[in-house]
Recover the amino acids of this structure.
């Protein structure tokens, strides 16, 4: 059973997302400042705590992972940007699903994708797909 704090899980999440070659920028937090597209931002959106016994709890950290690409960009066709978004979505889901072991930081990882939506950002409208990623780990109580 894994026994890790949020910091270890957050670090593993950042490492996994940064390893996705189809993504040009990975940012922690509710930012809209990206170095390139498709981009990913992630942030903690909730925590659930379930008591296992008097010595430990199962804690589930819920992260929001947004995969973002502008609706249009300097001479790049909509079809190209949409294909790039689809490739990034597949790669992120593959990494977080089948490949992301969290280096032993979690007992279970589940994902719930949303439909793609258009959202306004300072740089203009963008296509956004949100993954809700639930990471469960055992926490030993002192």
């Amino acid at each position: 059973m894994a026994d890790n704090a949020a910091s270890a899980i957050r670090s593993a999440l950042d490492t996994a997302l940064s390893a996705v070659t189809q993504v040009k920028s990975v940012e922690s937090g509710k930012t809209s400042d990206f170095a390139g597209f498709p981009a990913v931002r992630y942030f903690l959106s909730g925590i659930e705590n379930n008591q296992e016994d008097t010595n430990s709890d199962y804690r589930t950290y819920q992260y929001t992972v947004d995969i973002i690409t502008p609706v249009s960009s300097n001479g790049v066709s909509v079809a190209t940007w949409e294909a790039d978004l689809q490739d990034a979505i597949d790669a992120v889901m593959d990494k977080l699903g089948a490949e992301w072991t969290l280096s032993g930081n979690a007992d279970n990882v589940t994902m719930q994708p949303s439909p793609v939506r258009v959202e306004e950002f300072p740089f203009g409208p963008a296509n956004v797909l949100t993954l809700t990623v639930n990471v469960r780990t055992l926490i030993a109580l002192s």
Strands lie at 25-28, 39-53, 56-70, 108-113, 117-121, 124-140.
